[in-house]
Give the backbone structure.
Amino acid sequence: MQAALTELTEGGYARMSMDAVARRAGVGKAAIYRRWASKEPLVLDLLTRLADQAVPLPNTGTLREDVTRFVAYASALRADLGAIRILADLTAEATRNRPFAEAIHTIAEQPRRAAAARLLQRAVQRGELPADLDVDLATDCLVGLAYLRPLTPWQPAEPIDTDTRARLVEVIMAGLRACRH
């Protein structure tokens, strides 16, 4: 898995080969092919493992603190140039390969959206968000603003500063309150 991750990070999905992964891992190609028929299932297995290691959504007891921690985690990813490269590369591949896109959605996006929805539903139950919250739209607001702003690949690979994170939390909080049916 480490060899596959390094190959994916350094060369991208299109340039990645099973031969290169085997060489980097110091094993024969047959050992790789016994487990994965091609690079697509290998990368999807890797993505599953990485997604399983991700920090779970916060449950601090208050929406503001949950959103603050969620934004801080997303911001920290900005400093991980390897993660940014992989995300950009797999997103590009997903635009060309519909089954790959659907697999990524199932592995990475769907569980995170479900977890974000749980975070928002807890806030509704506590009375911090309106009872008629449009959970899908609110999830888009939370995830989109928290991740897209900090993970733009054309900006420097460093966490966003504390002041910007605090302002981003305020924007997300206002947006969440506006997400009503």
